[in-house]
Amino acid sequence: MTYNDIVRRLTSVYGQREARAMTRILIEDTTGLSYTDMLCGAVDSLPPSETLRIEEAVKRLERHEPLQYVTGVATFHGHRLMVRPGVLIPRPETEWLVDTAITICSQATTTCPQAATPRLLDIGTGSGCVAIGIKLALPRSYVEAWDISDTALDTATRNSALLNADITLRKRDALTATCDGETWDIIVSNPPYVCDSEKSSMESNVLDYEPHTALFVPDEDPLLFYRAIADYARQTLTDNGRLLLECNTRLVDDTAEMLCRHGFGHVSKADDCFGLPRFVMASR
After folding, report:
1. pTM for the model
2. Count of H helices and E strands in the chain?
3. I need a labelling partner for 16 at 20 to 30 A (CA). Which of 61, 146, 181, 202 fits?
4. Alpha helices by DSSP H, 146-223
């Protein structure tokens, strides 16, 4: 098996440009070979055991399984994270939650030195990508992360250990969360927001492989999680505490209006890195 063999096989499924990018990442993550090594023919000389691993990986990619599940690795906010089936793959647009939380905390520290130790909560943490990104950037912060999935919590635990990010992980359900006396300076969340009716327009690599509990909400109640998170945030955010939410691009306006009705102030919207309306921010 050669580098060009792999590109040729994947091109029939993904197109040449994407096939080349996937082949490079696949070989780098599974063998440690550099792109220069690949172009110089190093793939041809791999031992049989490595060739077999790549062959099995290519077969999985040909079945449209996401590359991140095949390699077991995803990059988010400059960090390499472990991912696996049952856990949502981190997306680049979600980095806005990390960047915005960091900016808010940095600005607060400038005007109020005691704000250098903020308390942040990530609801629905999945792989732990957002919570870990925040903790690594703000090492003096207390960061807690929730999920209802044992697979997600185990993955987040492993990622936090791999990256030496001291976060607290708890199994808690956003839909039934109540205040037990805790307070937060910032709550962030990327909850399920894809409507069931949108399934027919989704790519098979997402629909057939990523966890539906982390993706979908019923058409008749698309803001199900946002209302629950807003109710909890009203009880637990400190004065002027911030709520940062990733949303369905079709429902950003509805989410912002719901937060206004729930008594939040300074409600604003933001686009993602692809120029699509994706985020809502509000203050208590």
Report:
1. 0.93
2. 11, 11
3. 202
4. 150-162, 204-207
Name the H helices within 81-167.
95-111, 129-137, 150-162
> Under a CB-based contact definition with an 8 Å cutoff, are residues 128 and 88 in contact?
no
Give the whole-angstrom CA distance, residue 218 versus residue 166: 35
Q: How many CB atoms lie within 10 A of CB 261?
A: 10
Q: How far apart are CA 82 and CA 129, in angstroms?
A: 10
Question: 1-20 burial by CB neighbour count: b if 16+ within 10 A, else e?
Answer: eebeebbebbbeebeeeebb
How many Cβ atoms sit within 10 Å of the Cβ of residue 268?
10
Burial class (CB in 10 A: 0-12, 13-18, 19+), 276: exposed
The enclosing H or E element of 199 equals none
